[in-house]
Amino acid sequence: MNSYLLISLGLLLSCSSVKKSTSASTDKQLLSDVEVLSSDAYEGRKTGTKGAEMARTFIGERFGNIGLLSFQQLKGYEQPFSFDKDGGTFNGKNMIGYIEGKTDDVIVISAHYDHIGIIKNEIYNGADDNASGVAALLKFAEYFKANKPNHTLIFAAFDAEEMGMYGSIAFVANPQVSLEKIKLNVNMDMISRNDKGELYACGTFKYPELKKYFITTRPKIKILFGHDDPKLGPEDWTNQSDQSSFDAKNIPFLYFGVEDHKDYHQASDEYKNINKAFFTDAAAAILEAINNIDKDRNLQSIFREKLQLKKQ
After folding, report:
1. How far apart are CA 77 and CA 95, in angstroms?
2. CB–CB of 38/270 below 8 Å?
3. Per-residue pLDDT for 233 more than 50?
4. What does each C-alpha distance from 51 to 41, 57, 59, 169 come to in angstroms?
């Protein structure tokens, strides 16, 4: 009992430190990033378009201003890839940066930046899907740049998720570090729209060990576990966003998202329709969980037995 209380106290203290770092200025930047990425100028950020290129330029500038490192084998932060779909060949580019930790064990924090573009002369801006996830990723990068993490953190803004998760597939097929070094993927896809304050954390069905890290100082956020049981069929979200590519490689994952809303994949998924209070609280709660995970220096051993059993 005493050791459990000490662990809980340590996690609460780490949550408190994250809370202190969350100021009005960081929330303002978070919202600004969503507003920019989901503006009409970006034309819905469809893979292979001018809007997607503009999004990459914006993300690259933010990565550089934050001070993320780039991998030597990449051109700047860009990881190009190509794929065939519907009789055509498409070219995409992931945006990859990292913060060196105290160890070379890696956590990949990810969100896709692409959306579905222009349909019948209407711009589908994708504010929730998924400018929100990218904005949170940038917020987390700023936090950990100022607070050196234990784990090396890779920040991956994936392209071509909407076309079939091709960006994350390319990432795990040509990783910048050995896949064995990647201990966890934390993926975000749609985290700014829920009027009930509900944010789902998927991945704990396979990895219940992760539940202990969910201690938040944001009482208005209800973090729910679920949508990750294979018995749920279409309601199992495991393979419905980029965490799927990591799961396929037996890399543990957490996926944060909300249930579909009326503006999902509609032209009305615009900045003016996101729930700003929910979004800022959700981003802060996810950061608290990541911070708690990062502080566990034994993370690399948590899943070892389970993963060894899978490989046999």
Report:
1. 5
2. yes
3. yes
4. 7, 10, 12, 22
Query: What is the C-alpha to C-alpha distance for residues 304 and 284, in angstroms, rounded to an integer?
Result: 29
Radius of gyration, CA atoms only, the chain: 18
Give the chain's length.
312
Asked if residues 98 and 107 have their Cβ atoms less than 8 Å apart, the reply is: no
Asked if the 2-311 domain carries CATH number 3.40.630.10, the reply is: yes
Q: How far apart are alpha carbons 199 and 192 in whole angstroms?
A: 9
Domains in the chain: boundaries: 2-311
Cα atoms in the 13 Å half-sphere on the side-chain side of 91 = 6
Q: Could you report the per-residue pLDDT of 247-267, keeping only the tens digit for each?
A: 999 999 999 999 999 999 999
Chain centroid to CA 4: how far? 29
Q: State the DSSP string of 184-199.
A: EEEEES--S--TT-EE
Among 157-161, 166-170, 298-302, where is mean pLDDT lowest?
298-302
Cα 57 from Cα 133, distance rounded (Å): 17
Number of neighbours of residue 299 by Cβ within 10 angstroms: 21
The pLDDT tens digits of the residues spanning 123-166 come to 999 999 999 999 999 999 999 999 999 999 999 999 999 999 99
Tell me the whole-structure pTM to 2 decimals. 0.90
Among candidate residues 90, 81, 224, 232, the one with its CA nearest the CA of residue 156: 81
For residue range 183-193, what is the model confidence (pLDDT) as tens digits?
A: 999 999 999 99
Nearest to 255, CA basis, from 228, 295, 218: 228
pLDDT of residue 307 exceeding 60, the answer is no
CA distance 93 to 264: 24
Give 213's DSSP letter.
G
Tokens of 155: 């920040």
174: cis peptide before it, omega within 30°?
no
Phi first, then psi, for residue 136 (nearest 5°) are -65, -40
